[in-house]
Design brief:
alpha+beta, 3 helices, 43% helix
Length: 108
C-alpha cells in the first residue's frame, strides 16, 4: 500500500523484483550508464550491506540513514518462550524525516 498526497490508500501491484528493476532503470536513465551495469552495481551494493550487517558492522549513509543490528532480549511468559535474537534495523536520517514532514504535512 502506498499513500497518495490526499492521504488515500492506493494499491500498487509491484513485486520486489519489479521495484528493483524500476530503480535500476531510473538510475540508468538519470546517469546514462548501461542498465545491466546499474543492476549489477545495485545488487552488489545491497549484498555488501547485508554482509556487513551479518558481521555486526553498522552502516551509515550520510543524509539517508543507518542500518544497524538490534538485540532483543529473550523472555518467557505463561504462553510462550521468546529466545534472544537479533534483527536488522533501519533508522532514517533527520534530513529524510524533515523531507517527509514537509511533503506530507496536513494543512490546517
Amino acid at each position: 500500500m502506498v499513500y497518495d498526497r490526499a492521504r488515500k490508500k492506493t494499491e500498487v501491484p509491484m513485486r520486489d523484483f519489479e521495484c528493483f528493476c524500476g530503480i535500476a532503470k531510473e538510475v540508468s536513465e538519470e546517469t546514462g550508464f548501461n542498465y545491466k551495469d546499474v543492476k549489477i552495481i545495485l545488487r552488489s551494493f545491497l549484498d555488501i550491506i547485508v554482509k556487513k550487517l551479518l558481521l555486526g558492522i553498522p552502516i551509515k549513509i550520510v543524509r539517508f540513514g543507518r542500518f544497524t543490528i538490534k538485540k532483543y532480549i529473550g523472555r518467557t511468559n505463561n504462553y510462550a518462550t521468546i529466545e534472544t535474537h537479533y534483527i536488522p534495523r533501519f533508522v532514517y536520517s533527520k534530513n529524510i524525516k524533515r523531507l517527509f514532514r514537509e511533503e506530507f504535512s496536513i494543512d490546517g
